[in-house]
Design a protein that fits this description.
Elements lengths: L3 E2 L6 E4 L5 H16 L4 H4 L3 H17 L3 E6 L5 E11 L4 E8 L8 H15 L5 E7 L3 H9 L3 E12 L2 E11 H15 L1
Helix pairs in contact: 1-3
Length: 192
């Protein structure tokens, strides 16, 4: 197994796999209300069987090279969130990233750092040319992450997402590989 440091605070990014279903369910239980305010995952992961099934689906995506899931752990070893490649299509060069956190992980920049690592891998290693971020229009924290990642808002899909009996608009944000690389060069030259 491997882990990637997310900075000086000891947080790590690691793959989430079916054998971690207990830990994933405990994380979902701790953050169920907070995560569920903006994300339907708590309605899907409700018990050990559904937790295992969700992680198994991502293990199958990883095996087919069509998606990935990586957990975000605090220095104390607590799983507090995840970043995903919900879709990964190396033929077309497109992927969609996403995320969530429980309250213990919020406000620390963890999602931005984790998403940056995952997106960089998708662009630099897997050859993705367009990374998308699809978010409910009312999800300010996720929109802020898209902005911090240097993404551009492509548009709004009106009433495209039904969630808990209501229709929501979704915003589509994206960054192109050339824009990603240019921003990395700019950041590196500023830090020299």
């Amino acid at each position: 197994m491997y882990a990637m440091s997310l900075g000086d605070d000891g947080a790590e990014l690691r793959p989430l796999e079916p054998w971690q279903a207990d830990e994933f369910l405990a994380h979902m239980d701790r953050g169920r209300e907070f995560i569920g305010a903006r994300n339907g995952l708590p309605d899907v992961v409700t018990d050990l069987e559904s937790s295992r099934a969700f992680l198994r689906a991502y293990a199958e995506k990883a095996a087919a090279d069509t998606g990935r899931i990586h957990g975000i752990w605090l220095a104390d070893g607590t799983l507090v969130g995840a970043v995903i490649l919900r879709t990964l299509d190396t033929r077309s060069g497109r992927a969609e990233a996403g995320c969530w956190l429980e309250p213990a992980g919020a406000g620390k920049g963890l999602v931005t750092r984790a998403a940056r690592a995952l997106i960089d891998w998708a662009i630099e290693v897997r050859g993705i040319r367009r990374m998308e971020w699809v978010v409910a229009a009312g999800n300010g924290p996720s929109i802020a992450v898209a902005r911090r990642l240097g993404m551009t808002r492509d548009g709004v899909l009106r009433e495209s997402y039904a969630y808990r009996g209501e229709l929501h608009d979704e915003e589509v944000w994206s960054v192109l590989a050339r824009e990603w690389r240019e921003a990395k060069k700019q950041t590196e030259s500023e830090s020299e």
